[in-house]
Amino acid sequence: MALREFLQKECGFSTTLWKKLRRSGTFSLNGLPANAAQTRIKSGDELCWHLAEESRISPEDIPLDILYEDAALLIVNKPAGILVHPTGGEHSHTLANAVLFHYEAHGEKHAFHPVHRLDRQTSGLVLIAKEAHMQHLLSAHDAIERIYFAVIEGKLPEPCGTITAPIARRPGSIIERMVSPAGKYAVTHYETLAEHGGLSLLALRLATGRTHQIRVHLAHLAHPLLGDDLYGGRTDRIARQALHAHRLHLRHPSSGEEITVHAPLPADMSVFFPEIYGNFSLFTKDS
Question: pTM for this one?
């Protein structure tokens, strides 16, 4: 089998990564340097490669709430109020800066490879791959199960259900999205976990991963997230949109191990539900 075929089928190499290995990476076969483009492999061969990665992100000593880490993956609980990645106008105090400092402090050399992202004002779990090919493997739409907690005003007509509504960019805006027949297919499953004081706590499972998907779907049902000023939510009871990435479930791309990580509901959301009742089973089982 050609090395390229093996790396792309079995190791998550994208075409871009393969070109990078061929042009500027180093590769050895059974302990000896080899030309990646001309290499064919067989069962029992030992492969080793290195891809030099440069990052323009500066490491910063920012506290990280790490809930899982191994040689390939990192899962952190991001607080509301910080970006996952620097933008054109904001280069510091992001999750990326903090993660690169963590790598540096532990003698590891990696670039920043988030498998998915959260909005600045959304809290909760972010999965980060330490190598680009791992990021590529985990980027398949069904590789990760993600469950969110959300607080809305009022209650939805049905205690559980599925929202299927295509999402498109709102004309004239580079940020805001809307439900539109011309949009991309989007599906969100939800369950009401608790009701208290005119508010509802929902668990939501994403079947697709569109930008602002939960925010847009709930606003479409006339129940925007509490605190979500972009989509019509009240802002007098919480200082950000009440959305939290609570649970990640995935199969480890290297070991095949099933991994489930939970991040508890943060204080600014749990304060609305001093006694939470409800059946969490559909959304929190590890199996």
Answer: 0.80
176 token code pair: 């805001």
R_g of the chain computed on alpha carbons: 21
Alpha helices in the chain (DSSP H): 3-10, 15-24, 95-105, 132-138, 213-220, 267-270, 281-284
**Section 96-108 average pLDDT:** 96
The structure tokens listed for 246 are: 């609570």
Distance CA 210, CA 204 (A): 14
pLDDT at 181 over 80: yes
Mean pLDDT of 101-121: 94
Q: Which domain holds residue 23?
A: 3-50
74 falls within a domain: no
Say how many domains are in the chain: 2
Dihedral sign, CA of 25, 30, 34, 35? Answer: negative
Q: Average of pLDDT values for 13-35? A: 76
- DSSP annotation of 84: S
Q: Which residues are catalytic?
A: 119
